[in-house]
Recover the amino acids of this structure.
């Protein structure tokens, strides 16, 4: 059960409590048919075998919990940040609304002296990409890491106070993944000590740049540095875009918004073309590469520090994927516990609400909660397990990132290749899992999942670009595989290089290959996550060895991409399970908070269901036997049953505030149907019609002529 | 190459040919970097091994082709049906725009005396659900099948001329799938010979009803018939909703729109609540069930005719899923042939465009078309194969439906259970495949797939409800499985009942179970679709037998839903492959049009890739051996290579007009980048800004105060 501190996060007004204009009186007497959603959720919460507020504390920390409430209080009490109209707005309105929020947020953050943690929490709670997202998320970090001390002092000072608003312009209409193929040039003109930024073609136009379309005053532009006739490839330049006095774009550039998107419509992703546009020499970011006054280029010292940022961003994306799944699951699980459809007494035998009705008084109708249908559990409970799995690996990545950075500061780069490989594959795998999971959650809500009021469509559409951004999910797997192939070779050539530590993600590659899953001797062994982990290690090792063999026999790179995708996935599923095992068994805080048992249950479900979804790769070489697959499918059912009593508490544990969910189906209080109705009544088509005798705009022009064509007024009266 | 008749379907104006206000002159001198998209597509089309216009004729018929062009001509020449602004409109605008189109379309159809085929083609070309969709799609058919002759005459006459506009109100806020659980009542009042329609609770509100929100004048309402104190369950009633004189809703009802959705925003899906609302007795549809003046109820004679409509609708959905996939593939394949990213000479070795550049003149850059990366092929080519597979099964369903209806008219119901089972499972499987495939196509376009201009997001969002509508895809599989389990029992008890005809979809259930895939003796055997089909039959049979055994041992229904889902899928994948084999080998028109060889290639790819995606079910019982799985993966690569030269021609063959694609990436002429730019320039945020010195609305209010806070005008000038 959640404690008071957590309950505070869920405080939306009871729906339909205020009368609205133009609604007939009889409406206000209506209640949803029995049983009420609140009742169902209450019963669910009461039967949990662990304390969800302790789980919340285990997942995050007390510190974070405090910040949520603090920042949420500020935002919820300011009209500017109201989400009431979000689902009704078209593109232009939504952009403007967001601009207003960003402006107000900047002001608030300054006044309340919010630190970075609070600012980040603010964005998480506002829960929408913003027009300034790239300003804080890319422009400033890039200045920070690539600017000279002088540049940092000057530009970061301006940026921090929103004197200038920046964006990051790398992608072009013709090039995204292949950064080396960018066309925009920056040619050094020694005579004037300037760079001339130029777009030689239509496809050279920068494209997709967040905040550039309408907002930014400055862009960091990646352009091919050309000096003394030589092309040194893409480098970063600070380019002024719009006048600070009147916000007009400068002559010599053409800038605008790239148009409507699947989501992200509150952001002005933009394009920009340069026509021999000049900037001073000191606008090139010169911490590493430099061009002197004469135009002599000096290359950067070999530096891998910039990988750090990339790995940090990916750790963040893995953790975000966890929260995204958790959010999808929160809506789908709560709604599934409330939604009742058909009556199956066998399915409802453990449902107290059902038992209060049907058996005691067969005249009282009560249907089966859809959460009690085994197929619904099979679709949704693995998603709960995945959300926890992703969370533990996200935090693992953050920990290992910090360790790595510490090492690197001491000149030790050892961890980098391993962490880079894991981060590429994990970013790819976890964002793919989350995107699929959110959509499955949405579908599991039936028709109402298609309504924006469910909170899932808009959220999914905002999440979706993550499968493409920060490295396309298919491309990324080549990085991971390249590393694994290399390690395999190394371990073979020099067995002493095989890692000894269990902390290593690739130790398994050096192990003696096994032929069959001998550790799983009885069906009950499949409830042991360590035995499952062994199977994952075997599968990944086998796939890597097989590809290495093929390539040794001459299979070229391009013919190996399919296998590389599989290998990266296998390796990262192994990591996910490994980190989950660690959290459930070895994290002392889990034991202290009495959540270890439920985590073990969940960890097993994660292992089993992941194994089932990739079963052919475990079976095809004879590793997992026919008998073991039968056990597997049976044990999945057992795990689903074990998770069942804790399903609602497990999603409650994430503590995602109603303010974030913005969902009629996922509300903490279970008032699903009242909330759907209230939101529908506020639909502008309804509000406008109610203001005009409940007749729709367009009637006179488009419907009346059709309906009344050629009728006399006499006829009309008759109809 | 496509012939002239087909080329006519692709005639959008060249993009960027007309200057726009506020665009600097240098813009018009820019071209996309070489090579041009048109060039790439031309080379692709030239290397096809078959004639795509013949394939078009094979897939459809000459007759249909003629209608496309005829109707498209009318629509493309009428401003009302322009799609130019579709992607920029918000909800209310889009609804109004659609209402305008519907009104005009009704008028045109009347004037031009369009038959049903032309009207249907019109909706397909307009390519958007409409406010009148349910009027023609459900209201009229329902009147037709359930109304008495008198009712039909009266109401259909009005409906046909749009004197009234109808909708179909079954689903309620609380009940969708379980129709028997509907709450709305229709209580007969003998004194006044009326029914009193009433909503006893909030959840009794009708919900989701297309066209009800703002447009319809009448609804067919499904309500529980109560007469003489007895509840006879849901029956259909014609209920007047809005005045024909002024379109105001009548007193005693509360009606409105259910609010914004993931898609379908041009439709006014609506809710309605009834407060003891009276209608005359003769408004009950009384073809089968009747209530006389005194309130005596007479039940319908047992009649299975209504299954006919359902099966027809599902056949239509299977065929629509084919077209939907084809459309996704058209965009993704054309764009992949144009999009170039990174250089891999090995991958581009068969690319003539690449060869013209790099090897001959290494200074000319040319990157690898992404269609030449094996992973991209692995993602996309199976989708092409699926689109053909679904098409053949959709047409098979239509044929068998017609045969069944003919039989039924002769009193022979034999086909019904088999066709009903197949139609349930196929609707579920094919809409699921199509939804996944469209999204995969979208992602395979990288960042640009996220732009509405790609044509895919909007289209996907419109397609998505089909996984929930007309039977939720998960629920439906229970119908198919129930039938298969029953047949298995029957065949066991009475072997003489095992079908003899190869036309039967369940003959395999009665075959002697086999232990291993002996037919696949060599790797080359996997290129034989008949041998593949055998494996699909085995797998489905095994799964059905295993579930039957479990249930015989006492496994209850609810514990069997997971297996039922698997069985239904296995059975329907078998049907899809079976029908594909038929089309490629036995359809004389395929041979006559010289498309049989390419169809065989595609059929093999469909079989192999489907087998791979479900591999564990083929392998886990030892049927497919370890060696055979190795062959399988190798043969998939071979099939991908075999499809490669025909990829563009295979999507061209569907003949989907540019007017429908509405896609910058999928245009027939390959002018991808020009088109992206033109569409971006028309984005309202840009148009509005250009009208105001290129400064965004909201600048003065939200940006200026932030940027210029506390600055003197002196400072500003300096910045
Ligand atoms: C919402 C959104 C916001 C964005 N914000 C910004 C921003 O602020 N600043 C910025 O600079 N950019 C931004 N981008 C651009 C983004 O970084 C790119 O879209 C992304 O990197 C993908 O590149 P691409 O579009 O060129 O994909 P492509 O590389 O063209 O990919 C197309 C297809 O080809 C495949 N492919 C490509 N190369 C290979 C290969 N070698 N092997 C196998 N397959 C291959 C891919 O897997 C994919 O399926 C944004 C994009 C979006 C959608
Ligand atoms: C765009 C759109 C247009 C529509 N138009 C119309 C219209 O014009 N007229 C109209 O009357 N209706 C319309 N509908 C409603 C539509 O028919 C229903 O939404 C649909 O039938 C699904 O029912 P539901 O929403 O009650 O889903 P539910 O039955 O509530 O499904 C919720 C979840 O429970 C699961 N579930 C339910 N029962 C079982 C079971 N026995 N075993 C296992 N799992 C189960 C489902 O699989 C699903 O995952 C429309 C809906 C949409 C989205």
């Amino acid at each position: 059960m959640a404690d008071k501190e957590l309950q505070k996060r869920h405080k939306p007004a009871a729906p339909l409590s205020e009368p609205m204009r133009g609604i007939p009186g009889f409406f206000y007497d209506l209640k949803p048919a029995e049983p009420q959603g609140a009742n169902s959720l209450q019963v669910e919460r009461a039967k949990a075998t662990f304390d969800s507020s302790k789980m919340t504390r285990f997942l995050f920390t007390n510190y974070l919990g405090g910040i949520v409430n603090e920042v949420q209080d500020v935002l919820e009490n300011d009209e500017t940040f109201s989400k009431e109209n979000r689902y009704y707005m078209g593109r232009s309105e939504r952009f403007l609304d967001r601009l207003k929020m960003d402006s107000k947020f900047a002001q608030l953050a300054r006044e309340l002296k919010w630190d970075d943690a609070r600012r980040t929490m603010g964005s998480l709670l506002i829960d929408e990409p913003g027009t300034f997202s790239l300003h804080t998320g890319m422009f400033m970090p890039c200045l920070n890491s690539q600017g000279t001390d002088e540049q940092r002092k000057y530009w970061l000072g301006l940026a921090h106070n929103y004197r200038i608003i920046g964006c990051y312009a790398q992608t072009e209409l013709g090039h995204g993944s292949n950064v080396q193929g960018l066309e925009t040039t920056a040619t050094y003109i020694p005579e004037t000590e300037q760079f001339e930024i130029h777009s030689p073609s239509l496809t050279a136009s920068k494209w997709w740049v967040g905040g550039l379309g309408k907002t930014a005053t400055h862009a960091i532009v990646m352009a091919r540095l050309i000096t003394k006739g030589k092309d040194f490839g893409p480098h970063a330049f600070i380019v002024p875009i719009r006048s600070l006095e009147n916000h007009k774009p400068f002559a010599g550039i053409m800038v605008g918004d790239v148009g409507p998107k699947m989501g992200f419509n509150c952001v002005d992703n933009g394009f920009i073309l340069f026509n021999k546009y000049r900037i001073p020499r000191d606008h090139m970011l010169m911490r590493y590469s430099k061009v002197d006054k004469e135009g002599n280029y000096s290359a950067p010292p070999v530096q891998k520090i910039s990988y750090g940022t990339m790995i940090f961003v990916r750790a963040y994306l893995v953790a975000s994927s966890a929260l995204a799944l958790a959010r999808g699951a929160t809506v789908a699980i709560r709604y599934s516990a409330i939604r009742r459809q058909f009556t199956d007494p066998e399915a409802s035998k453990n449902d107290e609400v059902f038992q209060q009705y049907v058996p005691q008084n067969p005249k009282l109708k009560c249907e089966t909660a859809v959460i009690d249908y085994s197929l619904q559990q099979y679709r949704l409970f693995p998603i709960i397990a995945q959300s926890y799995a992703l969370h533990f690996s996200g935090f693992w990545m953050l920990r290992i990132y910090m360790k790595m950075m510490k090492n690197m500061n001491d000149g030790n780069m050892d961890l980098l290749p391993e962490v880079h490989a894991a981060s590429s594959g994990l970013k790819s795998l976890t964002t793919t899992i989350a995107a699929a999971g959110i959509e499955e959650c949405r579908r599991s809500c039936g028709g109402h999942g298609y309504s924006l009021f469910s909170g899932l469509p808009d959220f999914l559409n905002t999440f979706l670009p993550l499968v493409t951004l920060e490295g396309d999910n298919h491309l990324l797997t080549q990085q991971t595989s390249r590393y694994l192939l290399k390690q395999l070779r190394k371990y073979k050539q020099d067995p002493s290089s095989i890692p000894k530590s269990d902390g290593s993600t690739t130790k398994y590659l050096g192990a003696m290959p096994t032929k069959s899953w001998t550790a799983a001797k009885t069906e009950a062994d499949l409830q042991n996550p360590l035995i499952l982990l062994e199977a994952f290690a075997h599968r990944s090792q086998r796939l890597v060895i097989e590809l290495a063999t093929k390539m040794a026999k001459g299979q070229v790179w391009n013919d190996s991409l399919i296998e590389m995708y599989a290998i990266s996935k296998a390796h990262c599923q192994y990591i996910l399970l490994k980190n989950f095992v660690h959290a459930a068994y070895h994290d002392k805080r889990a034991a202290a908070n009495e959540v270890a048992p439920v985590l073990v249950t969940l960890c097993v479900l994660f292992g089993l269901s992941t194994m089932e979804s990739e079963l052919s790769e475990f079976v095809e070489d004879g590793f997992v036997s026919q008998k073991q697959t039968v056990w597997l499918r049976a044990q999945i059912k057992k795990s689903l049953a074990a998770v069942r009593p804790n399903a609602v508490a497990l999603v409650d544990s994430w503590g995602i505030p109603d303010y974030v969910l913005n969902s009629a189906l996922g509300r903490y209080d279970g008032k699903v149907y009242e909330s759907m109705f209230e939101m529908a009544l506020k639909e502008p088509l309804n509000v406008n019609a109610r203001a005009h005798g409940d007749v729709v705009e367009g009637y006179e022009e488009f419907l009346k002529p059709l309906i009344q064509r050629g009728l006399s007024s006499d006829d009309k009266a008759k109809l």
Remarks:
- Chain A has a mean pLDDT of 94.
- Chain A touches chain B through 156 residues (CB under 8 Å).
